[in-house]
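Here comes my example:
=====
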Amino acid sequence: MEKTKEKSRVLVIGATGRLGHYLTRFSIQSGHPTFALIRNSTFSDPSKSVTLESLSSSGVTLLKGSLDDEASLEEAVSKVDIVISAIPSKHVLDQKLLINVIKRTPSITRFIPAEYGADPDKTQVSDLDHGFYSKKSEIRRLIESSNIPYTYICCGLFMRILLPSLVQPGLQSPPMDKVTVFGDGDVKAVFVNEVDAAAFTIKTIDDPRTLNKTLYLRPCGNVCSMNDLVEMWEGKIEKKLVKAFVTESQLLEKIKETPYPDDMEMVFIYSFFIKGHHTHFEIDESCGGVNGTELYPDVKYMTVSEFLDTLL
C-alpha cells in the first residue's frame, strides 16, 4: 500500500500582520503543520492578544523569536521544511540573518521571501523609490548566491493600496465628480486582494513547477488601466466624471517636490500607470517566470469590480 506523503511543515514570519495571518490560515487549511515566529514583546502586547489567540486556536504553533535573534531563528527553522516571510517591505533587509540560518539548514526545501508586489528586477525607478526595490533585489541575490531553493511571489498591488481612492493621491474614497488620470490612462496595472495572494502563495510551496521560479499573478478582471477603472466606477455610480490628465513630466515634478515618505504613493503610480512595470513584459518560463492564475485555476479570487462594489 502506497504511503501518503506527509505535508510540508511551514514557518510563517510576520504572522501577526494582515498577509501573514492569511498565510497561516491557508497553510492550516491545506493540512500543513504550521508555525509562527512571534517576538517576545508581542506576547505581552494587549493589542495583539486576540490575534495570537486566533492563531493558536486555529492550530498554529507559536514560537518565540525574532529576525535579529540567531538562536531563535535556528530553533524555529530546524522544525520546518518551508519558510515564508511576510514582513513589511521597509524591513526587507532584516531577512539577511534568516537567510544565513536557512543556508545552514539542509532540510529547508523552499524559502518565500517578503515581496508580494512588483518584480523588483523589472522596475526602473531606482532614482525615485529610496531603495524600495533595490533592497528586495539585494535579498534575491543573497538567496540565489546561497543556493537556497526559493519561490518569489509578484502579485502587483494589494487592493487596499491606491484602489480605494481610484488611484487619487490623498483621497480615502473614490471621487464622485472629478478624477485625475495619470499619463494617457491606458497603461495597465495588476490588483490582487491580500487574502487571494496568500491562497496562491500556499499553493506553490510543494509544487515543483514553482521551484526557483517567480510566480506572477495577473488574474482576469484585475489587470486594469486608469481608464478601465474610471469607466468601471462611472458605470457603478451611473455618472460621468470630469477627467483631468497629469502628464509624466508633471507627475515627476510633483514627486520631486514631495518629501519622503509622502512621495511614495506617487512613485508607485508613476511606476505602474506610467511605466507599466506590472505588465510591460511577457511571463516567460524560460526566463524563470510562471503564471499563477494559469497554474491554479481553482483558486477563487476577488475581482477589481467586486472590490469597487464594496466602496458604494
